[in-house]
């Protein structure tokens, strides 16, 4: 399985902050927003990652992540010329994906929970063994603002709607998806919506029509933030700060994950930590390298 992280868009919901800075580089507490979805991919053991980015931000992404070899990974980039919708990312990634299955994440979604990686791994295994698509549902009090999923007691999806006026459930579809390889061809057949975008909901609707769409719920004990709004951005940062200060452990620390995965050794970890030595982030990495 390969991963796609959609990190383009114009970030208009965070204006005027994002008029000159891509939102994915803004800090969620002590690290860039984009570290968090990348860390989830790494925790799943996926080394091959493609970032979908704006033309103006390509070089900045390359300065931040390079080719990924310093993390034991293979990182590539594709340009999305305009924000034409989430489904377009699947089309742009066709050559990168090849014949593999797909883990698709939105770059501004932050997730946290004790069994999160276990649940994601179960979805990944299901797709690899049986194909189809998996979406994730999170209970919200204002479902009309989101894509909403309705499902039965076995997790089979009955309906999925984008920002419905009369939601059939309170479960929003969050920015994390697992697809088999057919998603690319499905995305190619998607017609632009009323707002002129290729909607990811249309891809999910086609899987539903085929009887191949399932949902996993992120219940109590999980946190999800769509950090593309001012309030959610602030809440995500405060949440991460609280967890890290209470536990002494970092969320979304990509160097630590690479090290614990065995993708880099202690000497490589030390090299990554040295330029950051004056920061708490760097000190954390140095302590990790010197404690084992």
UniProtKB/TrEMBL annotation:
Cofactor(s) the record lists: Mg(2+)
Pfam families found in the cross-reference section: NTP_transferase
Function, in words: Catalyzes the formation of dTDP-glucose, from dTTP and glucose 1-phosphate, as well as its pyrophosphorolysis.
Nucleotidyl transferase domain span: 2-241
Name recorded for this polypeptide: Glucose-1-phosphate thymidylyltransferase
Top-level taxonomy: Bacteria, Pseudomonadati, Aquificota, Aquificia, Desulfurobacteriales
Record's catalysed reaction(s): dTTP + alpha-D-glucose 1-phosphate + H(+) = dTDP-alpha-D-glucose + diphosphate
NCBIfam families: rmlA
């Amino acid at each position: 399985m390969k991963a796609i992280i959609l990190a383009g868009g114009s970030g208009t919901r965070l204006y005027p902050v994002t008029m000159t800075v891509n939102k994915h580089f803004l800090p969620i507490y002590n690290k860039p927003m984009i570290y968090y979805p990348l860390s989830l991919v790494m925790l799943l053991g996926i080394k091959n990652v493609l970032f979908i980015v704006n033309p103006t931000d390509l070089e900045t992404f390359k300065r931040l992540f390079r080719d990924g070899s310093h993390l034991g990974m293979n990182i590539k980039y594709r340009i999305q010329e305009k924000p034409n919708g989430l489904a377009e990312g699947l089309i742009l990634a066709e050559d990168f994906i090849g014949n593999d299955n797909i883990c698709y994440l939105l770059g501004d979604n932050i997730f946290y929970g004790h069994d999160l990686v276990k649940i994601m791994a179960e979805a990944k295994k299901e797709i690899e063994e049986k194909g189809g698509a998996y979406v994730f549902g999170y209970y919200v009090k204002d479902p009309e603002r989101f894509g909403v999923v309705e499902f039965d007691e076995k997790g089979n999806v009955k309906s999925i709607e984008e920002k419905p006026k009369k939601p059939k459930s309170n479960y929003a579809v969050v920015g994390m998806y697992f697809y088999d390889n057919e998603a690319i061809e499905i995305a190619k057949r998607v017609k632009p919506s009323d707002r002129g975008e290729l909607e990811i909901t249309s891809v999910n609707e086609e899987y539903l029509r085929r009887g191949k769409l399932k949902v996993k719920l992120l219940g109590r004990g999980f946190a999800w933030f769509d950090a593309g709004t001012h309030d959610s951005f602030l809440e995500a940062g405060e949440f991460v700060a609280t967890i890290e200060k209470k536990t002494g452990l970092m969320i979304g620390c990509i160097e630590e994950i690479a090290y614990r995965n065995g993708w880099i050794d202690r000497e490589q970890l030390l090299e990554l930590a040295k330029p950051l030595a004056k920061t708490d982030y760097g000190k954390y990495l140095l302590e990790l390298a010197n404690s084992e």
